[in-house]
Amino acid sequence: MAAAASSALHAVGAVASAKPRSAAPAVARRRSVRVAAAAKGGPGSSGRGRMVARSAVAAKADEAAAAAGSKSGGHELLLFEALREALIEEMNLDPTVCVIGEDVGHYGGSYKVTKGLAEMFGDLRVLDTPIAENSFTGMGVGAAMKGLRPVVEGMNMGFLLLAYNQISNNCGMLHYTSGGQFKIPIVIRGPGGVGRQLGAEHSQRLESYFQSIPGLQMVACSTPYNAKGLMKAAIRSENPVVLFEHVLLYNLKEKIPDEEYICCLEEAEMVRPGEHVTILTYSRMRYHVMQAAKTLVNKGYDPEVIDIRSLKPFDLHTIGNSIKKTHRVLIVEECMRTGGIGASLRSAIIDNFWDYLDAPIMCLSSQDVPTPYASTLEDATVVQPAQIVAAVEQICQ
Amino acid sequence: MAAAALLRRIPAARAPATAFMAARPISDSTAALTIKTSVPFTSHLVDPPSRDVTTTPAELVTFFRDMSLMRRMEIAADSLYKAKLIRGFCHLYDGQEAVAVGMEAAITRSDSIITAYRDHCTYLARGGDLVSAFSELMGREAGCSRGKGGSMHFYKKDANFYGGHGIVGAQVPLGCGLAFAQKYKKEDTATFALYGDGAANQGQLFEALNISALWKLPAILVCENNHYGMGTAEWRAAKSPDYYKRGDYVPGLKVDGMDVLAVKQACKFAKDHAVANGPIVLEMDTYRYHGHSMSDPGSTYRTRDEISGVRQERDPIERVRKLLFTHDLATAAELKDMEKEIRKQVDDAIAKAKESSMPDTSELFTNVYKKGFGVESFGPDRKELRASLP
Question: Are B163 and A239 in contact (CB < 8 Å)?
C-alpha cells in the first residue's frame, strides 16, 4: 500500500517536471493516477487500509472537473457544511474522534460547522467547554496522548493565542521530547482572517505566529472541496494539524463528489494553470487573485495560480515545477508583511529555485497594522485585486 | 531479646554480617500490619479517610528500598551536575520521595501520572530504570527520551507516566485531558496530575478543575507543597496557602507528604473518590532538601536550621527505618547493607550510562513528526534528506 502510494508520487513528479506544455493534461493524468490508488482503499475500509486513500486526488483544473470525475452527480453544499460532513464521516468511522470547543454542542457552533453533531454523537463526543482556551486545548493534547483524536475548535483563531503555550510546547513538541513515545493526533481548527469590520482582535491571522512551531502541520482550506478533504486528512493524520478556516468563506457554494475522498495535507492545489507568472496564495486571497486573474487575462497575461494550502510544510515540489515554467513569482497573502507566511515562502523559494527566477519575488501582504474598524481602512489593510494586477504587470515587464 | 539488642549495637564493619544475621532475615512477610499515620488528615468538603493504614512488612521494606534508591539517585545526580556531566536544569526530588512511593503503592500501572519537571523519582516509581534515567540526564542515546528531552522530559508510555513538563502548571490541563480520555474509554482508572505550590496559582489549573468538575472526570490534582516556589515562600505567593481548599466546590484533603503510609492512604482514597464522583484535590505537605534546581543553593530564602530541622524530624526514609525497627522487621546492619547495595546499584548504572554514546546527528530530525515526516521526506524533488546541518 505504502509502496503504491509513493510510486504514485514519483510518477506525478515525472509527469509534472516534463517539458512545459499545457498544464491541463498533466493535471488530468495526475488525477487518474491518484484515483486508481484511492480506489484500492475505497470508502468504508477501516484501519490501515485507509492509508491508500490518503494520497487521493487534490488538484482539479476547474470546478466542473471534480464533479465530472465523480461517479454519481455529486452534491452541492456550502463550505461550513462540507466541514461538517467531514466531521460526521470521520466521527462515524472512528469512535476516538471527538470535538471540543465553545458552543460546539448544544448551540451548534458559532459558524454552524458542528450543527447537529451533539444530537448525533452525544455530549461525551461533542463537548461544550467553558471559555478556557488554555486548559481545554491542553486537555485536548492530554487526551490525544492517551489515544483519542480530538478536534479542538477555537471560536475565532485569535482566541487560541491564549493556548499558545499548550500548542507550542505540548502539542508541537511532545513527540520529540518524549523520544517518539507519544503522538498527538489532534486537529486544531477555527476561523481566522480579516472579516467584515470585526475589529482588530477578531481579525487575527495566526498562521504567521504558529509557523515556527516544530512538530506542527498547518493547512488552510479555501473551497468546500478542499475543506472537506483537508479536514478528513487532518483528523486521520498522526501529527498535530492546525486547520485554518476563514470567516468570510463559510458560505461558499460548490458541488463536491458523493463518494469519499481526501486531500493530501502536504500538497498545493493548481487553481489555474498558466505560463507567465506563478501566483502563490491561500485562503481568502485566492478569490482576490482569481478576480485579478480575470482582469489580467483581458490584458493578455496568463497567470498560473496555485493555492498553496499547505502552510507548513510548503509543497515545494508543485511550487518549484511552476517556477521552473514561469520564472516569475508573486505571493499574495493575508498575513501581515512582517514574519508572515510570505516571508518564509520567499526564503524557501530563494534557497531552492534561485537559478530559475527572472525577476525578484514580489510579496503582497496585509499591512503591519491592527485591523481597523472603518470599512475603507479595513479594505486598505488587505490586498485588493487591483494591487495584484499592478504587481503582475510590474513583474512581467 | 538482650542478645538481639546487643547484636544490633555491633557496627557492621567490625563483625562479619553473616554470622549474626542468620538469626532472623529481613522480613518479607505479607501479613497485614496496621500503622497509624503521624498526623490526622485535614479535609475539605469530604470525610477524611481513617488514620489507620494497612500495610505489610514486605511493603515497608520495599518503601525503604525504593525511597533509598531515589535518594541515592538524586544525590548522585547532584555530583554529576557539579562534574558538568548533567547540564541545563536539574530539579532534585530528595526529601519528597514519600509522595512518589506512597502514590505508586496505592494505584496500578493502568492509572496515569503526570507531573512537572521534578520527575526523576516519579519515573523510577513508575518502573523506569536507573540506566535510562542517568543516560537521559547526560543526554545519551540510551536515555528514556533518547537524549532529546533531558531532565525535565522523562516519560514512560507503557507505564502510563506522561512526564516530565517544563512549563509550570501546563501539565495540569494535560492531566485533566488524560482523565477525560479515561472516562471516554470507560477505563475505571484515574489520573494523578501533580504540581507544586508555585503552580497552584496558575489560572489554567482552575480552568481545568472547573471543566473536570463539570464533566465529572477522574482527575486527582495533587499539590506537592514543598513551601517554596523557587525562591518565593508560599506565604509570599499565595493569599490562601490552604491549597487543598483551593478547589472551592471540589473536595480536598491535606496529607503529611513525608509519611509514605499517609500518602498511600490518601491516594487510595482519592482514586476511589475520583472514579466514582469526579475530581478531588490532594495537598501533600512535603519538603525538598535541595534548592529549586542545581543553580539554586536553596539557602538564600530559608535557613539551614530549617532544612536540617526537617531532615531530623520528618525525613521520610528515617521514618520508615524507625518503623522497621519498632516492629522488628529489620536490623540496622541489614538496612545499612541494603543502602550499600543501593549505592553500588546507582554507581553501576552511572558507569553504564557514561559508556552510552551521544545521539547520532541524524536524530536531530527524527520524531519531529510522526513517520519521520517533515524535514526528512519532502523537498523540491520529493527525495529524502533535504535538511542541511549547520
Answer: no
